[in-house]
């Protein structure tokens, strides 16, 4: 399963980012969220972009100490094994891995109960099977 973002439903409130950082770090800090919401105005009105982990597994393949694992449904990080080299952060094409001072934070789907989905008031985030179209 992976996250799907629907820009047509999102209003750019960033509650998902706050829920993510609170769930993982115990603080409301969008910079520590494992997803990004960017919003801006164009000639057509409000434009909202959501960037989520696509489970491309670049982080798993790049980690030199195998601290990042993928079990077929979610990523996990063995913090004791992580050396803080940040190679996974540099390899993430989405830029959603977080630098938490010598260790990384990555989307682990909140162990099956993603808080970003739970707190989104407009249902702009959902979980989909890997093979489903998420565009």
List the helices and strands and how they pair.
Layout: E1 2-5, H1 15-25, E2 36-42, E3 45-51, H2 58-62, E4 68-70, E5 75-77, H3 87-91, E6 98-99, E7 104-105, H4 115-119, E8 125-128
Antiparallel strand pairs: 1-8, 2-3, 4-5, 6-7
Mean pLDDT rating: 92
Rg over C-alpha atoms, rounded to the nearest angstrom: 15 Å
- Order of secondary-structure elements: EHEEHEEHEEHE
- Let me know the largest β-sheet: 2 strands, antiparallel
Distance between the termini: 15 Å
Uncertain segments: none
Count up the domains.
1
Which structural class matches the secondary elements? alpha+beta
Alpha plus pi helix count: 4
CATH architecture: 2-Layer Sandwich
- The helical percent reads 10-25%
Main-sheet strand order equals 1-8
Number of strand segments: 8
**CATH class division:** Alpha Beta
- Choose one word for the global shape: globular
Could you tell me the CATH topology label: Alpha-Beta Plaits
Percent of residues in β-strands? 15-25%
Keywords: 4Fe-4S, Electron transport, Iron, Iron-sulfur, Metal-binding, Transport
GO molecular function, one term: 4 iron, 4 sulfur cluster binding
Protein name: 4Fe-4S dicluster domain-containing protein
InterPro entries: 4Fe4S_Fe-S-bd (IPR017896), 4Fe4S_Fe_S_CS (IPR017900), RnfB_subfamily (IPR050294)
């Amino acid at each position: 399963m992976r996250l799907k973002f629907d820009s047509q439903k999102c209003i750019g409130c960033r509650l998902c980012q706050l829920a993510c950082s609170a769930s993982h770090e115990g603080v409301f800090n969008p910079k520590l969220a494992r997803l990004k919401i960017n919003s801006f105005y164009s000639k057509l009105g409000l434009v909202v972009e959501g960037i989520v982990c696509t489970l491309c597994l670049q982080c798993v393949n790049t980690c030199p100490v195998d601290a990042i694992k993928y079990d077929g449904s979610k990523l996990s990080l063995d913090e004791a094994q992580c050396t803080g080299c940040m190679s996974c952060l540099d390899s993430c094409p989405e830029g959603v891995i977080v630098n938490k001072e010598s260790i990384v934070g990555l989307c682990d789907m909140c162990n099956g109960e993603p808080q970003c989905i739970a707190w989104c008031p407009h249902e702009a985030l959902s979980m989909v099977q890997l093979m489903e179209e998420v565009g």
